[in-house]
């Protein structure tokens, strides 16, 4: 026959076990911590030798911040598996929107052509002879192909500020195979796509005013 526990001993046992039980219950009610997403930047550096061209006339170009088509005005990294459906990686994203990352690279690439005395990003109080308007049509990793492919499309319009007339317009499209079919492979391909596209954009702006 089991003898009943002494009241003092029972109280001590309860005082010992109760915090552990309450702690376990509290932990079970708390949400699981969410892992921070991996962050990636678009470098897309152009060939530094392009910056050796001598400065040209007093032409000034204002490069407006690129607009972005719906679905691409976000820091989330987009991909597609079938036409018309845009999806985003859950645990991988850009450190900033593609528009904010592309703008300074466009300025540096155009400066390197030597076709303009000054190339300024907006916002700025300066008034240039020319203004460059751009729109990111798409920046996505396409998994409907093998290997997957990053596609970057940019629409550009060069405008004469004084007359407000379009000097030239063009749509650029860069497609680069990803080295691996995962988000990081897409990031690597995106760097190459950016390098290729901004170099073509810089040549387009220089040729249009010469």
UniProtKB/TrEMBL annotation:
Keywords assigned by UniProt, alphabetized: Lipoprotein
PROSITE patterns associated with the record: PROKAR_LIPOPROTEIN
Name of this chain's protein: ABC-type transport auxiliary lipoprotein family protein
Domain ABC-type transport auxiliary lipoprotein component: 42-202
Highest taxon above the source species: Bacteria
Gene3D superfamilies for the chain: ABC-type transport auxiliary lipoprotein component
Pfam family, one: ABC_trans_aux
Originating organism: Variovorax ureilyticus
């Amino acid at each position: 026959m089991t003898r009943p526990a002494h009241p003092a001993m029972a109280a001590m046992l309860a005082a010992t076990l109760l915090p552990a039980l309450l702690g376990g219950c509290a932990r079970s009610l708390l949400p699981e911590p969410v892992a921070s997403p991996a962050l990636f930047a678009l470098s897309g550096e152009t060939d530094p030798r392009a910056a050796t061209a001598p400065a040209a006339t007093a032409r000034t170009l204002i490069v407006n911040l690129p607009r972005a088509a719906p679905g691409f005005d976000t820091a989330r990294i987009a991909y597609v598996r079938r036409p018309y459906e845009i999806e985003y990686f859950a645990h991988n994203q850009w450190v900033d929107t593609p528009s904010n990352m592309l703008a300074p690279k466009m300025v540096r690439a155009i400066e390197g052509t030597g076709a303009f005395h000054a190339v300024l990003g907006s916002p700025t109080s300066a008034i240039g002879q020319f203004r460059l308007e751009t729109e990111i049509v798409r920046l996505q990793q396409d998994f409907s192909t093998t290997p997957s492919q990053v596609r970057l499309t940019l629409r550009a319009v060069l405008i004469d500020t004084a007359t407000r007339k379009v000097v030239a317009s063009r749509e650029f499209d860069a497609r680069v195979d990803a080295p691996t079919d995962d988000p990081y492979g897409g990031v690597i391909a995106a760097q190459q796509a950016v390098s290729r596209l901004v170099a073509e954009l810089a040549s387009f702006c220089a040729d249009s005013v010469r």
